[in-house]
Amino acid sequence: VDVTVVGAGVSGLTTANVFQCAGHRVSVVADRPGMEACSGAAGAIWLPYHLEEGSRKARRALHSYSILRDLAETTPEAGVDMLYTCEAVDAVGRPWWADHVVDAQEVDFAGIRGEARREWALIAPRIEPAIYVPWLESQLGRPIEWRTVASFDELPGDLVVNCAGMGALSLAGDEALTPVFGQTVIVEPGTLSLGSVLSDERTPPAIWYAIPRRSEVVLGGCRTEVEPGWENREDEALTAAILERTGVAGFVPGKVLRVRTGIRPLLPEPRVEREGRIVHNYGHGGSGFALSWGCAQAALDLAGG
Ligand SMILES: Cc1cc2nc3c(=O)[nH]c(=O)nc-3n(C[C@H](O)[C@H](O)[C@H](O)COP(=O)(O)OP(=O)(O)OC[C@H]3O[C@@H](n4cnc5c(N)ncnc54)[C@H](O)[C@@H]3O)c2cc1C
Prior knowledge:
Layout: E1 2-6, H1 10-21, E2 25-30, H2 56-74, E3 80-88, E4 102-108, E5 118-127, H3 129-138, E6 145-146, E7 159-162, H4 168-171, E8 178-187, E9 196-200, E10 208-212, E11 217-220, E12 224-225, H5 236-248, E13 256-275, E14 278-284, H6 292-302
Parallel strand pairs: 1-2, 1-7, 2-6, 3-9, 7-14
Antiparallel strand pairs: 3-5, 4-5, 8-11, 8-12, 8-13, 9-10, 10-11, 13-14
Helix pairs in contact: 1-6, 2-6
The structure holds flavin-adenine dinucleotide.
């Protein structure tokens, strides 16, 4: 089957790879490289803390976990590493996901509220977008066609997969798609560890996380719902607040290397649905990497395998 995928972010590139592996002839069309879209702004980490046991989202996330884990073990050039990961949460007790991930364990983590408490940690895949997105591209059998798509009707192929992220607002006319602004400050490690991901999102809007990459640390962040067309640029007060929260969590970051902003394409649940010749796969919000392989597989299933 001839398949055209719209979008070269993590959703489009993963979907294109999954369709290609299933034997389809795949072309990708996009107006921007993934690194210039939302995918380039991500940390990016796989987190299980807010997944409901048995839900479709949880199944897709766990499928992605196993593929990302496999990449970390077999393909270092893909930019995925398994790291110790801990999020401060208000829930107590052994989480359901503890049986599905590597090395779930209770640890002490104070987060940014200061009080030490027992939390569940795990070993989770961390994906470095600047390595992973080009690696996904390099796996494609055909070069990406760089242009803006105005309508699905103009696209060739027996099947079109819509992985346009926020672009689905106009392409699919989906007004439920909400832009969510995110900002990170990328620093030299200072006293932050390159081996641990830490996150505390218990008191929005004052959320905080530290996601180490191979030689730098991504500090975040924010999840602010904005209007379509919002100007995607640095909020300097937020940069200062993120650095201050890092201090409250007990760390002294090194030199600020750069600030990155992005707009997450959010739906209550990603839309993986078929409409005639079109298969949609967009609306992953803050979990596009964590859900990527599971949603791509679901899109393939809708296409008939
Ligand atoms: C600060 C921040 C931190 C994040 N951290 C994480 C994390 O730790 N873990 C995680 O899993 N996720 C994280 N995310 C979320 C993740 O980045 C997104 O869910 C994901 O990147 C969405 O990918 P996408 O491919 O759907 O969209 P995008 O990356 O936005 O790609 C969309 C693609 O579609 C193309 N396109 C759109 N419209 C058209 C058109 N009309 N014609 C042609 N091409 C078009 C664009 O050019 C682009 O190539 C984070 C996001 C932000 C902003």
